[in-house]
Structure formats: structure tokens, C-alpha cells
Design goal:
Blueprint (H helix, E strand, L loop, with lengths): L9 H12 L4 H14 L3 E2 L12 E7 L2 E7 L9 E7 L4 E12 L2 E9 L12 E9 L4 E11 L27 E4 L6 H10 L6 E10 L4 E3 L5 E4 L2 H19 L7 E7 L16 H11 L5 H9 L2 E5 L2 E2 L22 E3 L10 H14 L4 E3 L11 H9 L2 E6 L1 E3 L6 E4 L2 H14 L2
Parallel strand pairs: 1-2, 4-13, 4-14, 14-18, 15-19, 16-17
Antiparallel strand pairs: 2-3, 3-13, 5-6, 6-9, 7-8, 7-10, 11-12, 12-20, 16-18, 19-20
Bound molecules: cobalt (II) ion (CO).
């Protein structure tokens, strides 16, 4: 763990911040990733199409809020093992209810549902926009983003809540409805505003997946700009780094010895049980079809999986200076110390000694330090898609991530150097033996 990182890959971090800003919803994350993959020569495959024509090179598949991409080096046999980077596209937030226009006491408000593990206080007094996906009558869908201050969940003044600093109690139903106007509720008003932004006829919209986001742009922070602050760093850092690794692998002078794969799933924050989540068959199906497309059979697929390795990359806890006692005293990851390798004996993380060694080896070869993480025994441990992927596919998996603070907050913090370091290690991981 000796290398130090005093140089910042500003280009990578700037691009991450642009990625996050352009990606307020999982559907936008997928679009931002696809855009970068297309630019690098990856071609989209649709699940309903025949994949057997031209099976080499870069390919990607989109299913709702999930994206799977892979690169087949020229002449790679059908049983070539996979090197998988797993990540997730969703972040905890507030989602718009089917009948959104509501109000109280002379205010116009929007009804919202809490998605995932949201620290509700972090959504108070922020200027919020709305984004997501519209489902049109003709079966098509359209991305939409109103990236301007439209809504706000106002905190109750301290004069009316004198004990607020002893613990803020927020009721998910009563206290989280944002306001956006005065007067009586106007049915259809929010959808009308969103339709206008999307350039769609409101009468053509039959369904939607809409959510709120903080419109404050991402940025650098700190005495020496050592940190970045943004919404949704969990887990767009990993999706962005995974895309960078895949693009680097596809463009490398020496073709990768394995088949690099990026699996960016939706719905991790609510347990991964969906058509586009890690608990579903999406990854297995797509990997299987990629083998079939190259003329391989069931034996080739099983061999490719048996030799596979998966890195599940997700946000990790840096030690919090004001709550250091909540962390294990021997494991205090810090920002800009390189990727964190997460261990949990109870399999909340899938890392075992062999997986740890595989990832630490990739760090060494990339000249990047790493930091081990394990929870304090009195604290519940988080989890990610690592154990799910390991259990579903029977693939050796290691859980890693970037150390950050304010995880799941409406605005999170991490080191400015770590995203680039993660991308370097992932590139080494997906291309090496
Ligand atoms: Co996460």
C-alpha cells in the first residue's frame, strides 16, 4: 500500500462531474454511459435482435435503467473468461407519485414516494428539479429533465420546532411533499410542465418514471480542492469508471486477455429485485448470448463463467472525523487513499481472500494504493450487488469502492483523485490475466 497519489487526473474527475450532472435518473445514467461507449466504437444490440452477425468488438445492451457492455477481442475463443465490473445506476431519492398534484393550506405541492435509504433531512431546503422517463402512447419512451429550481421541501423554522437539534423527526408521508406554487392543486400541472420540457404532447403521455434531483451543480471542495461534492456519487463513480475501463480495454494496443464486461444494474438501492436489477437473469442471459453469438455452446459458457472474476464496485465509507468511534479502529479508509476493498465475513460483501488478492494485485500492477474496510462489530454492515452476483452466477466476486462521506445524502463527498484511481485499477483488472 505504498504508492501515494499527489497528482489528480483532472480530466477523469471533470468528466465524472459532467457525467453526474447530465444523469439525474438511472435512465440518464444509461444514456450518458451509452454516449461514451458509442464514441469509443461500441455498438448497441437490442435484446430482440439476432446477435450472431459480427460478434467481435464492443457491444452494449440497454434494458430500462440498466446497461450491460462488453468487448470481444479479435479471435477470442468462445470460452474466454469474463472480467466483470458490476455497479448500479440508481441512487436514493424522492419519486413522483402517479397522481402528483396535491396541496395543503393554500400551497400547491407534489406527492412523492421515498425511494431507497434516504436520509430525509438532506433533501430539506434544496432547490429541486425533476427528471426521468416518459412512456408515450405509441410505445416509445422519452427522457426528460427539468434542471432548474422548481420545487423545495422546506424545513420547519426552529421557532416552531425548538427541540430540532436534539433529533429531527420527519414523517415520510406528511413532511416530505415539496411545494412549487400557491393556490389550489391543478390536476395535470406537473405532467404538463414535464411534457413541455420534453417537447411531447401531454395527451400522448400514458405513463412515467419521474424523480426529483438537487439542481446545484457538482464541484470541487476543500482547502486544496482535494474533494468533490455531488449528488449520486453512489454509484455513478463506479458506472463512470467502469465505462472508462471498458473503453481503455477496447482501445489498448495489446488486446485484453479476457472479455471485459460492465454490468450497471438498476434498483440496487431497493434490493435489486427487478427486470433490470442484479437479482434478475439479465447478466446471465446477456453473457450466455454473447457466447452463443460467437458460435459457443453451453460448455463454452460454463467454462467462461468458471474462469470469470467479478468486481462489484460501489461507494464505501470513509472514516468520519466526528464519529470515528463508529468505525473499526483498525480500518479507517480516507479519501484519495485509493480504492477500498470491502470485507464482511457474513457475506454482506462477497470478498474472500482470493478475491482480495486478485484486486490488490490489480492495484499493485496499476501502481495504485488500496485500503481494506470492515465494519465495527456493533454497526450493521451495508451491502451491494456483489453477493447477489456471486450467488446468482457462482462467480468469484470482490466488493470494492471509493471512500466517501455523506453516503446516500442528497449531496455526497469523496476524494477528487479516487475516481481516476479506481478507473486505472478497473482497467488493469479487466485487461489482465
Ligand atoms: Co451504492
Amino acid at each position: 500500500m505504498s504508492p501515494t497519489h499527489d497528482t489528480l487526473d483532472r480530466g477523469h474527475t471533470d468528466d465524472l462531474l459532467a457525467f453526474v450532472r447530465a444523469s439525474p435518473s438511472p435512465y440518464h445514467v444509461v444514456a450518458s454511459a451509452a454516449q461514451r461507449l458509442e464514441k469509443a466504437g461500441f455498438a448497441e444490440l437490442r435484446e430482440r435482435d439476432d446477435w450472431t452477425a459480427g460478434a467481435e468488438g464492443g457491444r452494449y445492451v440497454v434494458r430500462a435503467g440498466a446497461l450491460l457492455a462488453w468487448y470481444v477481442p479479435p479471435g477470442a475463443p468462445a470460452h474466454t473468461p469474463f472480467r466483470i465490473v458490476g455497479a448500479h445506476t440508481d441512487s436514493p431519492n424522492l419519486r413522483v407519485k402517479p397522481t402528483p398534484d396535491t396541496g395543503s393550506a393554500g400551497w400547491r405541492q407534489i406527492a412523492v414516494e421515498v425511494y431507497g435509504g434516504v436520509p430525509l433531512n438532506t433533501w430539506l431546503d434544496r432547490d429541486l428539479g425533476v427528471s426521468g422517463r416518459l412512456a408515450l402512447r405509441d410505445g416509445s419512451s422519452r427522457l426528460v429533465c427539468v434542471d432548474e429550481p422548481l420545487l423545495r421541501v422546506p424545513q420547519l423554522a426552529i421557532h416552531l420546532d425548538r427541540t430540532v437539534n436534539e433529533g429531527l423527526a420527519l414523517d415520510r408521508q406528511r413532511h416530505m411533499a415539496p411545494l412549487w406554487g400557491l393556490g389550489d392543486p391543478r390536476p395535470g400541472a406537473l405532467l404538463g410542465r414535464v411534457a413541455e420540457a420534453a417537447g411531447a404532447d401531454v395527451s400522448e403521455i400514458l405513463g412515467w418514471d419521474l424523480m426529483l434531483h438537487d439542481v446545484q451543480p457538482p464541484g470541487y471542495l476543500g482547502a486544496d480542492e482535494e474533494f468533490v461534492v455531488a449528488s449520486r456519487l453512489d454509484n455513478q463513480i463506479s458506472v463512470h469508471a467502469g465505462v472508462a475501463a471498458l473503453v481503455a480495454a477496447a482501445g489498448a494496443a495489446r488486446p485484453p486477455a479476457r472479455i471485459p464486461v460492465l454490468a450497471a444494474f438498476d434498483h440496487e438501492e431497493v434490493g435489486s429485485g427487478s427486470e433490470s436489477g442484479a437479482q434478475g437473469p439479465l447478466l446471465e442471459r446477456v453473457l450466455g448470448r454473447s457466447v452463443t453469438a460467437r458460435g459457443g455452446g453451453a460448455e463454452d459458457f460454463d467454462r467462461a463463467l468458471a474462469g470469470a472474476l467479478c468486481v462489484s464496485s460501489d461507494m464505501s465509507h470513509a472514516v468520519h472525523p466526528n464519529y470515528a468511534e463508529r468505525h473499526d479502529p483498525g480500518h479507517h479508509p480516507l479519501p484519495n487513499g485509493g480504492p477500498v476493498i470491502k470485507v464482511n465475513a457474513n457475506q454482506r460483501y462477497a470478498t474472500d481472500g482470493a478475491g482480495f488478492a486478485a484486486f490488490a494485485g490489480a492495484c499493485e500492477r496499476a501502481g495504485v494504493s488500496w485500503q481494506p474496510f470492515v465494519s465495527h462489530n456493533a454497526m450493521p454492515c451495508g451491502t451491494s450487488i456483489g453477493p447477489i452476483t456471486a450467488a446468482r452466477l457462482g462467480v468469484a466476486t470482490v466488493d470494492v469502492g471509493v471512500a466517501g462521506l455523506s453516503m446516500h445524502s442528497a449531496r455526497e463527498l469523496c476524494g477528487a483523485r479516487d475516481p481516476g484511481l479506481l478507473a486505472r485499477v478497473l482497467t488493469e483488472f479487466v485487461t489482465s490475466q
